[in-house]
Amino acid sequence: MAKTKLDRAGGGALETGRASGSASRRAFIGVFGGPLVFWQGLFFVAPLIFMFVMTFWAVRNYQLSADFTLANWQAILAADYAWDAYLRSALGAGLAAGIATVVAFPCAYYLGLKTTPRVRILGACLIMAPFFTSFLVRTYTWRTMLGDEGVLNAMLGWLGLGPFQMINNLFGSVVGYLTLVMPLVLLLQLFSISGIDRRLIEAAHNLGCNPFQTVFRVIIPGARNGIVLAATFAFVLSFGDLISPQVLGGSNPPTLSILIVDQVRGGLQWPRASVIAVMMVVTLGVLVSLAMAFVYGGSTKRAKRA
Amino acid sequence: MTADASATDDENAALLRFTNVQKKFGDSFAVRDFNLEIGRGDFVAIMGPSGCGKTTTLRMLAGLEHPTAGEIRRNGEMINGLSPWLRRMPLVWQNYALFPFLTVLENVEFGLRNDKVSKIDRRRRASEWLDRLGIGDLGHRSPTTLSGGQAQRVALARALVLEPEVLLLDEPLSALDANMVVRMQTEIAQLQKALGITFVYVTHNQSEAFAMANRVVIMNQGKIEQVGEPLEVYRLPKTRFVAEFVGTNNIIDGTIVSHSPSGVVVETKLGQFVSTNPIDGTLGEASRVHIIASADLVSVSQDRPKDSKNVVTARLIGESFAGTIVILVFEAAGGQELKVQLQQRALQDLSLDPNQEFHLVFEPMDTLVIPSV
């Protein structure tokens, strides 16, 4: 009897707890999530819509005026220089994403699986250390390293090589992009690799895979999602970066980000700049969607099989 | 040529031989003084409480740990430092360790990919094993969607498809529910007989070990306590640890008073006991010993028997039912606890009055005398 009563009382208390819990949870989400939603709405979604609307506006006598014209779209889409810049941006970002993925992997593999937790934490701190210095400063430093009379060419000169042109070209831009994205790629790869179940690695060894084969047959498939997301972020950041192509790439021929600046500076062509920006946003939107589908689609496909 | 000659020398050698194997982690011994021979076609169960070194022993066989000292030989050849991927001694893991990013069929094919086998052949062999283990229809599923019993079969198929000389199993049934355990036990035992390959099976569960193995190794604190056939280990425990770990045994401390071909007489605080079983040759008069009697070989009587030897008077203090058998717990003089295991039916002839005294009879032929350490 007493037990039943107790149970009932307990149940009642639990239910009230749950009800007030959901109300307070909603309040919690509202208080802490609200500002972010407000911020994103005000400073991201609204400007994005405004930017898209502006692509149909016109510029008359250096004055921006509301209009509905397809002239801006026609001008940009018909311009070879715009498509050249588009391909150049995509090529640079693609190279940066690819090189960062390949170069970061051995380091992430080593830190994630082959060291003690203490070394791993130290390694992660060192990876983050570049963020302590402004990206602009780091890019200018590269100029002194890679310039025609820079440190690297001086050293190569002693060996009777060079000088090589390493800035004011695609090489320089890609070095800049890599400086920007490498820490992020390395961290994302490190997290996904250190999350791999060690028993799977031992199981692979047990089934005849040497450590090298294990990397390709267990580590990479196991860390696939992290590797793909890291590469996607690397592409997104490099594709939109302005500093690297300007400081290290020499601005000419331009990338899309430089083109946007040129359109605005040269003739206050805000609408045309907006067209280019919309092209970039759509490109990255498609790319990120594909990456997400690849990463999360795999798991839904698997669930469906069941 | 010389290699061939030495191979002939070792033809009669055990498939696997441990000689004084030792494994240290830091300053503590995980395994020590480990000597064991495992023959071709043996089903060896290594059993012991957690932390006794049984899993470390298995991992040393797989090459996932390397001995600190001693030798492990396979077919006479030392394999102490041989890398795991060169051993072809597949392991069935406690939690299966299936690759979640591969399908069931791809998991089973995994080990064959390093062999020079065509893709079609590989696929056929993997499918055959899935069929043989009754999960042929699961080939395209992800391992993450399988039940415990199904995952266990996939793990077995993945190992057996390699047609190994030795299969290692690390508590493979510990994550399954009771019904499935009994089914898999039968299947694994049949599989081992049919294949005729050596199984080395690690478990903390004695019913698993006794149901399947033809040799049982009992380990404690990194050392082997006893090796033997299941029934031998069960009926003739050699150490106090084995007597406590295996089966349900009564253990009474005592001292040998006399020693003759007709039997050993031991004086205990519960009276004198006679055992007609052979004893350790090192034991003589005045040696400290333990009397061991299996709970299922002790009989209970309400009437006092004529002979006073091998009889203990005790009070019933508890009972526990386990299906068809019942374990009665008695307390004798000096708080000594004694257990008697009876069939449920035998219990019906006995009135279990807690105030009454019972007489427990230990037959001399069912009483063992082992040295006290």
Helix content of chain B: 10-25%
Global morphology of chain B: elongated
- Total beta strand runs of chain B: 20
- What's the CATH class label of the largest domain in chain B? Alpha Beta
User: Poorly predicted ranges of chain A (pLDDT <50, ≥5 residues)?
Assistant: 1-17, 300-306
As an assembly, this protein is heterodimer
Say what the CATH topology of the largest domain in chain B is: Rossmann fold
Mean pLDDT of chain B: 90
The N- to C-terminal Cα distance of chain A equals 46 Å
Strand order of the largest sheet of chain B: 6-7-8-3-9-10
Rounded radius of gyration of chain A (Å): 26 Å
- Spans of chain B of at least 5 consecutive residues whose pLDDT stays below 50 are 1-11
**Helix segment tally of chain A:** 13
How many domains would you count in the coordinates of chain B? Answer: 2
Strand fraction of chain A: under 5%
What best-fitting shape of chain A do the alpha-carbon axes yield?
globular
CATH architecture group name of chain A: Orthogonal Bundle
Keywords:
heterodimer; A: mainly alpha; MetI-like fold; 13 helices; 2 strands; globular; disordered N terminus; disordered C terminus; B: 373 residues; alpha+beta; Rossmann fold; OB fold (Dihydrolipoamide Acetyltransferase, E2P); 6-stranded mixed beta sheet; 5-stranded antiparallel beta sheet; 10 helices; 20 strands; elongated
